[in-house]
Specification:
Length: 534
């Protein structure tokens, strides 16, 4: 007889013997399972019994056992009852173990691997790193998930023939990763072109409850907002939520020794471009004079009207042109006075060294209006303040929509080397606005004031602008409005409730009008006069 037949016959005999043994010992297994159930029940009851009641319980159990022992055939009846209860308790077979829950990390990483395969799979690659029947473990080196099961960190490899130097190819991969990992967060993508590896990190949200306040900064330093801890090596104390915490700021240094004397802020509509201008104005007012041009004409800067240090707030084209022409003349006058003082070896006058800030909100709208009316473009008047503003202590800040970047004059774009982008702009728009590729993919829904900043040739960093609302906006929170009002040079009567005069007991007496006396229709002197531009 062949050997395999002997082996198969032996396996059948062993299987039959095992079946008979299981049938024979089935009652014993049932009783044993019931006894384990009784033992576990007794142990739980004993642990649940308070310590002061364990003594009486032991006494009652011992008395019961003695009584059973003294009864005729008591032990036999007790044993039969115990076996019957054990058989009844152990009659149900042991429940099959529940199948293990699917690994969330394995599921999400497999989905991400499958989504990246069409973009990273080469049809002519004999040993592809990404293919439709492959596993993510062959391409993903390390990964981390947070407590909520969301991807927080990932490192993956990609083939050497992938065009990682092209912004469009990178944008496709970043869009796929953000779609699978969650669009509610921001992600930083670190492309290592030498080793063909991509490191992805989910960024923690920046604080959004920082109100306008006096920041610890030197004169000429403007705190644009706050960023991540690795974005700067400096921290300042900030009042936040009733406590003082240390936050890393994004500081823009202005003045004659600044390499980036002017700022260009672009953003999506409704993401705080005007709030950034208000924040800059409140920080510059203690040591500088302001000229504000509101090209949109929405009244976002009406809180600065008639404030000490604010020369004018213009909303019309005629007023904007007059203010800009005065700024040009003032810049020329300052340059002449500074050069004369430098040649004479004397100190320059105080009115020349005091900084002058020119804030323009949506100047492209005024440019379109000027073109339609055949007037000079207001942006053309900015050439002298932009070219020689650093020497004349004149700082220009321009804020506009990111869609109007093409309508901004080349002079403004060339001389404003400090850049800010607010809102979830696209990769191409962010690159054009910041002048450098952005290695952070913005979230789909960002809070107001969230954006990115780049000072000079530095690396773009995340930015959260302090909440600087319009104090005249009744829909804004009262806490934020009071914070802005407290920073203004003096309180504005329009933001306070007018005092109600007491009601007289009798109507006032009106003097009769003399028909022979002429009536004076001239206007009296106004209580509040706007400061002249010149």
């Amino acid at each position: 007889m062949p050997l395999h037949r002997h082996l198969s016959k032996g396996r059948e005999i062993a299987r039959t013997a095992g079946d008979h043994a299981s049938d024979m010992f089935a009652p014993l297994s049932v009783i044993g399972r019931g006894m384990r159930h009784h033992t576990a029940w007794a142990k739980d009851r004993w642990q649940a019994t308070p310590k002061e009641r364990r003594g009486p319980t032991l006494f009652l159990a011992a008395a019961m056992l003695v009584g059973i022992y003294l009864l005729p055939h008591g032990l036999l009846f007790a044993l039969v009852a115990l076996m019957a209860s054990a058989a009844w308790a152990g009659r149900a077979p042991r429940a099959a173990p529940a199948p293990p829950a699917p690994d969330v990390a394995d599921t999400k990483l497999s989905a991400l691997y499958a989504a990246l395969t069409p973009y990273l799979c080469g049809p002519e690659d004999p040993n592809p790193l990404y293919h439709f029947e492959g596993s993510h473990k062959s391409a993903f080196g390390s990964w981390e998930f947070d407590g909520e099961g969301r991807l927080s960190r990932l490192e993956l490899s990609y083939p050497a023939y992938f065009t990682d130097t092209e912004p469009a190819a990178r944008a496709r991969i970043e869009q796929v990763v953000q779609g699978k990992a969650g669009r509610a967060r921001e992600y930083r993508f670190d492309w290592d072109e030498e080793s063909n590896r991509l490191r992805i990190a989910a960024l923690a949200p920046l604080p959004t409850d920082v109100a306008a306040q006096r920041f610890v900064a030197a004169p000429g330093e403007i705190v644009l907002g706050f960023t991540d801890e690795d974005g700067t090596a400096r921290t300042i104390p900030v009042a936040e939520g009733g406590t003082t915490v240390q936050r890393p700021p994004v500081v823009w240094r202005t003045g004659p020794r600044s390499s980036e004397p002017h700022l260009l802020a672009l953003g999506v509509t409704g993401y705080g471009g005007s709030g950034l201008l208000r924040s800059i104005a409140l920080q510059a007012l203690p040591y500088a004079d302001l000229v504000v041009v509101d090209g949109a004409g929405t009244g976002e800067h009406a809180c600065l009207v008639n404030r000490p240090g604010v020369h004018t707030v213009e909303t019309s084209l005629h007023g904007a042109l007059a203010a800009l022409e005065w700024t040009v003349q003032e810049t020329d006058r300052r340059l002449t006075a500074l050069n004369a003082a430098r040649h004479a070896g004397s100190a320059p006058p105080e009115d020349v060294t005091r900084p002058l800030w020119l804030l323009l909100d949506h100047p492209t709208e005024l440019s379109e209006l000027a073109q339609a009316e055949g007037r000079p473009d207001p942006q053309d008047l900015l050439e002298l303040p932009l070219r020689h503003g650093r020497a004349a202590r004149v700082t220009v800040v321009v804020a506009d929509d990111i869609e109007a970047l093409d309508r901004i004059s080349p002079t403004v774009r060339a001389t404003t080397r400090a850049r800010v982008v607010l809102g979830p702009a696209g990769p191409d728009e962010s690159r054009a606005a910041l002048g450098a590729p952005l290695d952070i993919v913005p979230a789909a829904h960002a809070p107001v004031g969230r954006g990115y900043a780049r000072i000079g040739n530095g690396t773009p960093v995340r930015l959260q602008v302090p909440a600087t609302v319009d104090p005249l906006d009744e829909e804004a929170p009262a806490r934020l409005r009071e914070a802005v009002i407290a920073l203004l040079p003096h309180r504005d009567s329009r933001t306070e409730a007018a005092a109600v005069p007491p009601r007289p007991e009798r109507p006032p007496l009106v003097a009769p009008v003399d028909p022979a006396r002429p009536v004076d229709l001239a206007k009296g002197e106004p209580l509040i006069r706007s400061r002249p531009i010149s």
